Amino acid sequence: MAQNNIENKERSKSAEAVIVESIDTFSGHLEALRAVLIKSAITIAIIFIIIFTTVSWWFSFIGKGADIVVMGPFEVIRFYFRTSGAISIGLAIPFMLYYLWQFVKPRLIPKEIKIMHSMLPLMILLFLAGLLFGYFVVHPISYFALIGMGEKNFDVLITADEYMSFLLVTTIPLGLVFQLPLVFLFLNYLELLDSEIMRNVRKFAYFGLLVITALIAPPDIFSHLLTLTPMIILYEVSIILVKRKEARDREKEDN
Q: 249: closest CA among 164, 181, 191, 184?
């Protein structure tokens, strides 16, 4: 009887130790995540201050000579705040990814760490490539095409808020769309698809990309074609990359 009581007490202490350890681990995760959020917020705030205090220097370059108007003094400060905020978040994304990587890294196995080490720089480069493509190709062509269409029947006045909203719509989504190759490589790593599946569903994939284009691109045929073309190219490149990865995996298995 005494022996059973001792064993029960030991089991109880063991269970309590597991619970305490779980709570400590969970609290540690929350504390680390809180640090990530704080560092991200500080980074955004610093970049916001820099952008907001220098807006008069760089906005003429962003405007690309477009005729932009404001409807009142309050719209000026509102526009500066919105623009600085949007750009600050965009520029802070690489830093936020780095902070998030530092949070996730201790919880990954060596193979996953190696994959993320190779993907993180590509993720940032592809995002920047999408932004640049949107800014230098999609935005100017679609903007001046729509303005030219409107000028045939109307006196077109573009407010600063409308211009910046249009600029963000024609750049930020493309930065995300350019992540397609990494998404497909990650899905292949999870064994959810392979190059053969991607080839077999090509027609359906193109239709899906067309739907995405209709959602993110401005409503004119030029913007749709300019946005859809790189998406199709990225899909085909993704098939090639996945196929090469599969070949490397087979070589490792054979060795």
A: 191
Phi, psi of 159 (to 5 degrees): -80, 160
The torsion defined by the Cα of 59, 61, 62 and 68, in degrees rounded to 10, comes to: 70
E strand segments, the chain:
68-69, 158-159
Overall residue count recorded for the chain in this entry:
255
In angstroms, the CA 112 to CA 34 distance is: 23
Write the pLDDT tens digit of every residue in 180-225: 888 888 888 877 888 898 999 999 999 998 888 888 777 677 778 8
Burial class, 3, CB count within 10 angstroms (exposed 0-12 / middle 13-18 / buried 19+): exposed
Q: How far apart are CA 24 and CA 112, in angstroms?
A: 25
Entry pTM: 0.72
Phi, psi (rounded to 5 degrees) for 168: -65, -40
CA atoms within 13 A on the CB side of 220: 18
- Residue 63's identity, in one-letter code, is G
Secondary-structure breakdown of the chain: helix, strand, coil percentages, each rounded to the nearest 5: 85, 0, 15
DSSP 8-class letter at 217: S
Neighbours of 247 (CB within 10 A): 11
